[in-house]
Every structure is written in C-alpha cells, then in structure tokens.
C-alpha cells in the first residue's frame, strides 16, 4: 500500500536529489524511496525466500520460519504452511491461509512456513488488460510487459474474474513428496468475483530455487476466498509489475532439509504439482 509524502526540504538536498535522479534515470519518487529505504535498512526490489523449490519437491514440508518473521522482510508474497497445510497469500502486510474449498482466514504470526517468497511490493510498471480468456492468454499479456528473461518479477493483478479455477494443498501425509501430496488437493472455482492475484515470475535458470515462470495465488476483494491459480477468465485487469534485483534465501536447518537429495532437476515435478489440475494429471 503506497502513501503520499508532502514535506519541505532545503535547496541543497533538492539539488542532490535531482543529481541522483539524473544519474540513475529513475523517477524522483523512486530515487527518494531508494535513498530513504537504504537509510532505514529496508530492502526494496529484494526478494526474501524461505527454502527452495527443490526441497519442496522432495517433501521437505516442515515449517522453519514464522509468519511474523516473513512480515519483517516483506508485505507481499505467497507460499504454504507447515506440512503443506493450505496456500499462503500475503497482501498489504497481512498474511492469509486458503484451505479446503478456498475458505480463507488470517494467519497467526506464530504459524510457520516451509516455503515462502515475499517482497516489499511497489509497482515499477503498470499494464491494463481488458480481457483474458485463459491462463495462457494472461501469461502472454504479462510476458509483453516483462523487460528481461533474467530477473525475478513480483506480479499483482487486480480486477474482475468471470471464472477462476483454484486449488489448495491439503496437509501432507507422512513420507509424501510434493507430487503425491498435491494429488489429493482441494480444487474449486469461483465466478463473477473481484479480487487480486499475488505472485512472481521466476527465470528458468532458477528452477532449483523457485517455481520457474508464473506462480500466482488469488484472494477475493473481501478476503474470504482464495487459493493457488490453475486457470482464469477475467476482464478489466490492472497488472502491476515489481522488478526484483536482489534475492535472499533462508536455508532451513531442519533434519529433513539437511539430508534431502537436492541434486535432481525439479522441473517435471513442479509442472505437475504447481500447474496441473487433477483432471490434467490423468
């Protein structure tokens, strides 16, 4: 959530700000925010991530970081909860859990996550999308706004969803990996609903760290419904992109992570677990 600041500053500071703006090529707003963020020790254009996608594929589902700790690193993002108990959506500094049938509730600060990605979101670019017929069309529209194949991008889309197909992971059984655990996921749809898609686009080269391509979670405008995006039909979407140039990963110290085999390519498993509905798995 952005705030507007009005204040008086000296001419010397104003001249220095203009000089820095001209040097970087950024807007005055971005220039000032970057300077203030640096002075206050805040990381903008920086992703904080708990664990890796490779570990998640291998079934490392034990929570290792509290929700309160996530909030200290960002106000926007997604993930899951201890033992794969539902989908996480973080929006405007609040963290929500989407469970069976897409019913959401605000997460307790003491809950833990085995995998999450958060940032301090601020739109660097905005694009209006009049109509979307399916998730493929949505991704094509977003692709046209991305400046590079090599940086991470935070994605926030707000608007009217004529139909949105979602899922929520259910608590994993002992010994399951990600593909097996999401095979008994809860799937559901909502129609004619306003809300927000929250997520990230990650480069292909980072596939052992995060889900490559788009990874999006939904939460309704009234904050009562949500889940992991499978497909969508929508109109009048406002797409906001936040360019991420810094990545911090908190490596879990759990026994499961320390002894997991993380040398395998997780691509196929991630495509099944993160992007396929139960129908498409058959």
Q: Can you describe this structure?
A:
- This protein has 282 residues and is an alpha+beta fold.
- It folds into two domains: 11-37; 46-276, Hypothetical protein, similar to alpha- acetolactate decarboxylase, domain 2 (60s Ribosomal Protein L30, Chain: A), CATH 3.30.1330.
- The protein has helices spanning 11-24, 28-40, 53-57, 67-71, 135-143, 178-182, 255-258, 267-275, 278-281; strands at 46-50, 65-66, 76-80, 87-91, 94-98, 104-106, 112-113, 116-119, 125-132, 152-168, 186-202, 213-220, 226-244, 246-250.
- It has a seven-stranded mixed β-sheet. Strands 9, 10, 11, 12 and 13 form a five-stranded antiparallel β-sheet that branches.
- α1 (11-24) crosses α2.
- The chain starts with 10 loop residues before the first helix and ends with a helix.
- Pathway: Polyol metabolism; (R,R)-butane-2,3-diol biosynthesis; (R,R)-butane-2,3-diol from pyruvate: step 2/3.
- GO terms for molecular function: acetolactate decarboxylase activity.
- Keywords: Acetoin biosynthesis, Decarboxylase, Lyase.
- It is an enzyme of class 4 (lyase).
């Amino acid at each position: 959530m952005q705030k507007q600041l009005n204040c008086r500053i000296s001419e010397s500071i104003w001249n220095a700000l203009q000089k820095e703006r001209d040097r970087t090529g950024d807007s005055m707003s971005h220039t000032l925010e970057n300077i203030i963020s640096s002075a206050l020790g805040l990381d903008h254009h920086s992703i904080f991530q708990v664990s890796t996608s490779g570990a998640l594929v291998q079934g490392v589902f034990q929570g290792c970081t509290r929700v309160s700790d996530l909030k200290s690193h960002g106000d926007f993002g997604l993930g899951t909860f201890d033992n794969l108990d539902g989908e996480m959506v973080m929006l405007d500094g609040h963290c929500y859990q989407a469970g069976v049938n897409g019913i959401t509730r605000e997460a307790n600060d003491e809950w833990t996550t085995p995998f999450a990605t958060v940032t301090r979101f601020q739109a660097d670019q905005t694009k209006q999308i009049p109509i979307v017929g399916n998730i493929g069309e949505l991704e094509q529209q977003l692709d046209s706004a991305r400046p590079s194949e090599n940086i991470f991008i935070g994605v926030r889309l707000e608007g009217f969803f004529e139909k949105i197909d979602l899922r929520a992971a259910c608590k994993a059984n002992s010994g399951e990996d990600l593909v097996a655990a999401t095979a008994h996921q809860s799937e559901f749809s909502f129609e004619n609903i306003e809300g927000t898609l929250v997520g990230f686009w990650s480069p292909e080269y980072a596939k052992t760290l995060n889900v490559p391509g788009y990874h999006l979670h939904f939460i309704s405008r009234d904050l009562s419904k949500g889940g992991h995006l499978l497909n969508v039909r929508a109109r009048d979407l406002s797409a906001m992109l936040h360019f991420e140039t810094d990545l911090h990963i908190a490596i879990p110290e759990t026994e499961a992570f320390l002894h997991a085999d993380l040398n395998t390519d997780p691509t196929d498993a991630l495509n099944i677990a993160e992007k396929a509905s139960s129908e498409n798995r058959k």
